[in-house]
Specification:
Immunoglobulin-like; 3-stranded antiparallel sheet; mainly beta; elongated
Length: about 110
């Protein structure tokens, strides 16, 4: 199983809490899933609001790191909203896969 730093788990799956004002990098690592010789050749990251409202969380950039990791820089969101973030990859050998997690936007206080 993958190590999830900063993530929490509930009966639906993994989620992380993000303040609407924060701009953060989120990385998904396919190292344990990919055959040793394969690398990620393309990746997309999409965001949907889980309650059907318009999406106000933004993917500012996406990068492939170390040939097996995909990092998305994500900003925005609205306090009280929950977003589904899906990473979809294609490898140089033609394999495709996707992983997702949720971001819960919460106005953080000290």
């Amino acid at each position: 199983m993958a190590q999830l730093t900063g993530f929490k788990q509930d009966n639906i799956g993994a989620y992380i809490i993000k303040d609407p004002a924060a701009t953060l990098d989120y990385t998904v690592d396919w190292t344990d899933w990919l055959p040793a010789a394969e690398v990620v050749s393309s990746a997309t990251v999409t965001i949907t609001n889980t309650v059907g409202d318009s999406t106000s969380l933004s993917v500012d950039s996406t990068a492939i790191n170390d040939n097996k990791k995909v990092t998305a820089n994500i900003s925005g969101g609205e306090g009280g909203q929950i977003y589904n973030v899906e990473y979809t990859i294609t490898t140089d050998g033609g394999l495709t896969d996707s992983r997702n997690f949720r971001i819960k936007c919460v106005e953080r206080q000290l």
